[in-house]
Amino acid sequence: MEKRLYVWGSGGSGQLGLGTLDDYTLPQCRDTSQLSVQMESITSGGCHSAGIQTDGRLFLWGSDDRGQLGRIASKRGQNCVTVSREHVKCIPDESKAKLVACGWWNTLAVVVSESHDNHGDRVFSWGSNESPPIVYLPQGLQVASIACGWKHSLLATSAGDVFAWGSGRHGQLGLGSDTLVASMPQRIDTLKDMAVSNVFCGWEHSVFRSSGGEVFTCGNNRHGQLGVPEVVASASSENRNERRKQVNGSPVRVPDLGNSSKGLSTMQISCGWHYVLCLTERGDLVTWGKGSHGQLGLGQFENAIEPKKIAFPHSVRQIACGSEHSMVVTQSGDLYTCGWGEHGNLGHGDNTNRASLTKVAFFANNIQEVISVVAGGAVSLAVTSTRHPSKN
């Protein structure tokens, strides 16, 4: 089965890897002879993208204005408009990458080194932070999930522990409202018994998913992106606006999500800059936060300060959020998008914002089944295969 990689949206920093700085309003197929089809996983951040090849090598392309591509010093600051075969220099040559996350100005990678097998995973970070690239963690940890926000990073281990570092000005580190900055990873003790399996970063908020599908949030709540309206409602009128921005800097549970008896355990979560999208065990799409560009898919350009169910009649395979646009792949391989479309990132051939999930006709017209998608900033990526006749 031949797989293809399609990219579209903003290419102003070369983050599409197409060799240009142009925006594309329709999906563009990458040449199948290029490196991209050998990628085991791909992710995208504010203005740069990354991929891990099947042999564990890590490649980055797009904006390098803060050194986020991890190249040799003489090339830093030069954007890379194609998927270069040059290996990233910020990690040891003998290492194999297993996870990568792209923030706005930084990159976070987890590697397994053949010469350090007994010491657990190693974590490296580079870009806007001037500190050494290696992230120091307790020895022997196995990393299960990583995420980058605007100025903060999160990591979850296979044992369910969570570490946070970077800016905490809005409580996004989950370490309490007094922690404004953590220069080294700090364990979030309030989550130690929650068996966190996945972490996600918005612009200035954080989301944690437990192995049982519960959801916890902390950080900036200006647009309702924490999904906990009762905290705001219970605050006095004089400090209600401040409580809307930040909920004590400690993770709080989003009501009902994780309730298996109601089928509300979350299976997938994705974060935009100021909103959250979830797929539940029952197959529902649930969302909350900023909706001014239609990214919530609720049919209106308004915020939602508590979880709302999206009216969507199809079974869902996967979800993904860019900065302010959403992507939903159905079990039948169709792609639907909504939200911010200024750079063509919705894939409909225009620059229009959409408040409801709308089918991307391009793939059906070209007999392509969408297998998986990635979104970042104003960028969209999709891996496809030739559609089976029964799914037409």
Summarize the structure.
With 392 residues, the protein is mainly beta. The chain contains three helices and 27 strands. It has a domain of 104 residues.
Description of the structure:
The chain has 392 residues and is mainly β. The chain has a domain at 1-33 and 322-392. Helices cover 4% and strands 41% of the residues. The protein contains three helices and 27 strands. It has helices spanning 229-234, 240-245, 361-365; strands at residues 3-9, 24-29, 39-44, 48-53, 58-62, 95-102, 106-113, 122-127, 134-135, 143-148, 152-157, 162-167, 181-187, 196-201, 205-210, 215-219, 252-253, 266-271, 275-280, 285-289, 304-310, 316-321, 325-330, 335-339, 354-359, 368-376, 379-386. A hairpin with a 3-residue loop joins strand 3 and strand 4 (48-53). The model has no long low-confidence stretch (mean pLDDT 88). InterPro entries: RCC1-like_dom (IPR058923), RCC1/BLIP-II (IPR009091), Reg_chr_condens (IPR000408), Ub_ligase/GEF_domain (IPR051210).
**Proportion of residues in β-strands:** 35-45%
Helix fraction?
Answer: under 10%
Main β sheet profile: 4 strands, antiparallel
The largest sheet has its strands arranged as: 2-1-27-26
Q: In angstroms, what is the radius of gyration?
A: 20 Å
Q: Provide the succession of SSEs.
A: EEEEEEEEEEEEEEEEHHEEEEEEEEEHEE
Number of strands: 27
Question: What's the end-to-end separation, in Å?
Answer: 17 Å
Instruction: List segments where confidence is low: pLDDT < 50 over at least 5 consecutive residues.
Output: none
- Helical/strand content category: mainly beta
Return the average pLDDT rounded to an integer.
88
Number of helices: 3
